[in-house]
Write a structure and sequence with these properties.
Oligomer: single chain
Largest sheet: none
Mean pLDDT: 81
Strand content: under 5%
Low-confidence stretches: 1-10, 486-507
Structural class: mainly alpha
Order of helices and strands: HHHHHHHHHHHHHHHHHH
Radius of gyration: 22 Å
Number of strands: 0
Length: 507
Amino acid sequence: MSETALKPESGPDAKRWRALVFIALAQLMVVLDATIVNIALPSAQQDLGISDGNRQWVITAYALAFGGLLLFGGRIADLWGRKRTFVTGLIGFAGASALGGAATGEAMMLGARALQGVFGALLAPAALSLLAVMFTDAKERAKAFGIYGAIAGGGGAVGLILGGFLTEYLNWRWTFFVNIPFAVVAALGAYFVIREPAGGRNRSPLDIPGVVLSTLGLVSLVYGFTRAESAGWSDAVTVTMFVASAVLLAAFVLTEAKVKSPLLPLRVLTERNRGGVYMSLGLAVIAMFGLFLFLTYYLQIVQGYSPVKTGFAFLPMMVGMITGSTQIGARLMTRVAPRLLMAPGFLLAAVGMLLLTQLEIGSSYAGLILPAQLMLGLGMGTAFMPAMSLATHGVEARDAGVASAMVNTSQQVGGAIGTALLNTIAASATTAYLTDHAAGATNPKLLQAQAMVEGYTSAIWWAVGILVVSALIAATLVTTGHQGGTSAPADSSDGVEDEVKIPVMAH
């Protein structure tokens, strides 16, 4: 087969860099939404009369729909076309955001959040798979994924800043309305600028049993961890959710091994490098989400920062992420093996996290929190960038959507686990500290603050360990060479002609 047969019909798309702007804008909107609503939640709860018991559903409704439907969204992108799926996701997300901003009661708010999750699950895998099929030259791919990786990692901090501003100076409703201009600009830009390479569709019939089993299995898993945070790990419903999730996901894997056109072809998972990326990314996100949560609480409750000041306090991490992703990861990705960026990156993040185990009530921001955040950001940015690229590197074009969805799924499930697991560890340590020191306490307020900080540092120790495990997984499982001219071997084509594979050789 000739070399020309492996390339898109008319060579690289001349508008691909303009297309990246709109893909990045859409990704920023999705990542923002993970944190922006957290800051607005207390005000929204008061205005809409949402009970304390139901408050968590504003976050959980989005997480369940988004996490549960990601694999389905990735497969729809492969089947229906990535550009069409991307634009549909953006328009739907804008409509759901308008509904959330205009919410008049609890039911309307929860429905809007679930809808945001549904359209986010269409949008996120389509965005990443568009990058995978549009940027095929090794150096260009490194730059494009450097920008994408910086947004994927640092967008959460932007959400905290923007959420603080909008809540403090306008109204909580604007944390929803702000998505509309993002979505409209990205959708219009995508419609006119993005040109999807020919021959990358997967027109196999949809695997309905796979869709049902994966969606129910992932929803059970995410809900199990979310419920454990409030009801405890031994709660009957929590245990039932975990058992159901294990059974459903095991049935899903068995189904995918047998059906002719699987929702998630097991070749996407069993390739050693991609499997290593999904595992190490998911674990790293557990640590990251825990940190966002504890540092937000620490700065606002213990140090008394305003929402806006708290948002700005996260800026060093964002600067570190952007630098690590675009200046270190993107520049070195074509020269060194991915594991030589990922493993040291996760270890540097672990050292930053280790610094935060020294937190005390009166800890200096400049002396402790700022250097810790810079190290965390630099490490995560350096590791995330090659991980994002490698997750879709060498995969067949027909599998690009579902491979991209697996990246998002590992992050989403990692986020749910991180929030629940580390929060539970922190709460247990806080309770134990209060019990041990209550007898001799002369200042109850001071004791409460000390107990909270003790809880945060206990959980952060766990996060350090999780990041070290991420580094070990990256070092041992990710064995491919650098991506500057040779590729990881593409998966077996199962009878699909070579023309539909993503060209991963440098042109």
